[in-house]
Amino acid sequence: MAYADQEMNGNRITSLVIVALIHVVIGYALISGLAISAVKQVVQRVTTVDIEEPEPEPEELPPPPPEQEIAPPPPVAPPPPISIAPAPPPIRTQVNIPPPAPPVLRVPPPAPPAPPPPPSLARGAQRDNYNRWASRIVNEGYPQRAIRREIQGSVGVSVVVDANGRVSSCSVTSSSGESVLDEGACQAMERYARYDPALDAAGNPTNGRDSLTIVYRLN
């Protein structure tokens, strides 16, 4: 059924219902002895009800196009969790920095003085009874060959004295010009010379040296 027919039938039914109600009311009024003027007014109102004409039937609109299926959005991966590092503790800055404490100087006590070294006992070889053995060298040690040839002269010698005070070696430092006198002088020193041996710092006997000149003179 069209929309206009439905609306017209509805209006008709409404009018019929109203008319039926009016008749009921009128009958009731007549029964209850209402005033005739009231009935007339009601009848006049009912008879003057305008019935609206049905509106023209609107043109049927084409059905709407079917809805297009919309593809679901691509899945979006959730963002990785963001780890928020806790805030570092606040740094307390000291405005007035006290000066550092002065270093404690610990001066060690002075070391006790070292004991003085013992006195050195070192000394060189010393001639023992020099006049006696020197006389024997120029008299008993005069080479006989030089006496026969009447050779005279002076011989300088250097000797090494051992720890026993004896001459262990002899060398000529100043020649007389005659080998017989030079050789005789060293032989006489090794034979007749006597010494107090040299001493080291501790006072122990050790090797020493001596130098002297032997003079050979004929009487």
Task: Provide a compact summary of the structure.
The protein is of the alpha+beta class. 32% of the residues lie in helices and 16% in strands.
Description:
The structure is a single chain. The chain contains five helices and seven strands. Residues 46-51 have low confidence and may be disordered. Among the domains are: 3-47; 126-216, TolA/TonB C-terminal domain, CATH 3.30.2420. The protein has helices spanning 3-32, 36-47, 130-139, 144-148, 179-192, and strands at 126-127, 153-161, 167-174, 195-196, 198-199, 205-206, 208-216. The longest helix is centred in the first third of the chain and has 30 residues, at 3-32. The chain has 219 residues and is of the alpha+beta class.
Q: What tags apply to this protein structure?
A:
three-stranded antiparallel beta sheet; 219 residues; alpha+beta
| C-alpha geometry | rod-shaped
Query: Into which percentage range does the β-strand content fall?
Result: 15-25%
Number of helices: 5
- Spatial order of the strands forming the largest sheet: 3-2-7
Low-confidence stretches: 46-51
Helix coverage percent: 25-40%
* Radius of gyration of CA atoms, rounded to a whole number: 83 Å
The largest sheet is: 3 strands, antiparallel
Mean pLDDT: 79
Broad structural category: alpha+beta
Topology:
Layout: H1 3-32, H2 36-47, E1 126-127, H3 130-139, H4 144-148, E2 153-161, E3 167-174, H5 179-192, E4 195-196, E5 198-199, E6 205-206, E7 208-216
Antiparallel strand pairs: 1-4, 2-3, 2-7, 5-6
Helix pairs in contact: 1-2, 3-5
